């Protein structure tokens, strides 16, 4: 479930309270829509409340907004996963913190291109962030709008950024480890990946 950041925090509170009836069906809450003009600080109190209800938390940060949005989302919203996060590359200090903490960055390459964060896929920085040691994953973002599902994003990244087999395996494993499934489910999927890669 997501709060739309171009709306008010009061409206986000209304959505949060209405969600409680369906809480057993909702894993967590996120913050999406237009970053610019809508910093994480705007939603600090509603995220505090969401955490008190036991929701996991994520937020779009550092796609169109600069790296300060990532810092705010981590420090003020106490989020567990950054959606996008590609602007982290512009802060050495933030990159080091993300490397140590291994907070997941759910990078959406097609979205980044469509929103002109990068002019084309060959300019994308996901390989650089992966090589630095960040916990980056490849994802789709509104597939019908941004012209591609998960596999389309992954194939395009592979074709344009000279990723190795090891890079691809790392990206896929990162996605499993960064998900909100159980530890047992993670182990199951990671074992399947190992079995597949061993036989191929």
**Average pLDDT value?**
95
Strand order of the main beta sheet, please?
A: 1-2-3-4-5-6
Helix share of residues?
40-55%
| Order of secondary-structure elements | EHEHEHEHEHHEHHHH
Low-pLDDT segments: none
What's the number of helices? 10
Structural class: alpha/beta
In words, what does this structure look like?
By secondary structure, the protein is of the alpha/beta class. Helices cover 48% and strands 12% of the residues. Strands 1-2-3-4-5-6 form a six-stranded parallel sheet. Helix 3 (67-75) links the parallel strand 3 and strand 4 (81-84). Helix 9 (165-177) runs antiparallel to helix 10 (183-198). The radius of gyration is 17 Å and the shape is globular. The model has no long low-confidence stretch (mean pLDDT 95).
List keywords for this structure.
alpha/beta; 6 strands; single chain; six-stranded parallel β-sheet; 200 residues
Secondary-structure topology with pairs:
Blueprint: E1 2-4, H1 9-19, E2 28-32, H2 44-52, E3 56-61, H3 67-75, E4 81-84, H4 92-101, E5 105-107, H5 109-114, H6 126-132, E6 136-138, H7 143-146, H8 150-161, H9 165-177, H10 183-198
Parallel strand pairs: 1-2, 2-3, 3-4, 4-5, 5-6
């Amino acid at each position: 479930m997501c709060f739309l950041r171009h709306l008010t925090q009061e409206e986000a509170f209304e959505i949060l309270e209405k969600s409680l009836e369906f809480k057993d069906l909702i894993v967590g809450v996120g913050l999406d829509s237009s970053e610019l003009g809508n910093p994480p600080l705007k939603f600090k109190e509603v995220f505090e409340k969401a955490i008190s209800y036991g929701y996991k938390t994520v937020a779009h940060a550092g796609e169109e907004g600069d790296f300060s949005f990532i810092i705010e989302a981590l420090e003020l919203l106490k989020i567990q996963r950054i959606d996008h996060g590609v602007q982290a590359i512009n802060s050495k200090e933030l990159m080091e913190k993300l490397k140590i903490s291994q907070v997941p960055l759910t990078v959406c390459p097609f979205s980044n291109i469509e929103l002109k964060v990068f002019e084309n896929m060959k300019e994308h920085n996901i390989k650089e962030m992966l090589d630095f040691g960040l916990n980056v994953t490849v994802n789709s973002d509104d597939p019908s709008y941004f012209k591609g599902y998960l596999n389309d994003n992954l194939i395009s990244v592979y074709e344009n950024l000279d990723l190795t087999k090891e890079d691809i395996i790392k990206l896929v494993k990162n996605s499993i480890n960064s998900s909100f499934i159980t530890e047992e489910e993670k182990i199951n999927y990671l074992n399947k990946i190992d079995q597949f890669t061993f036989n191929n």
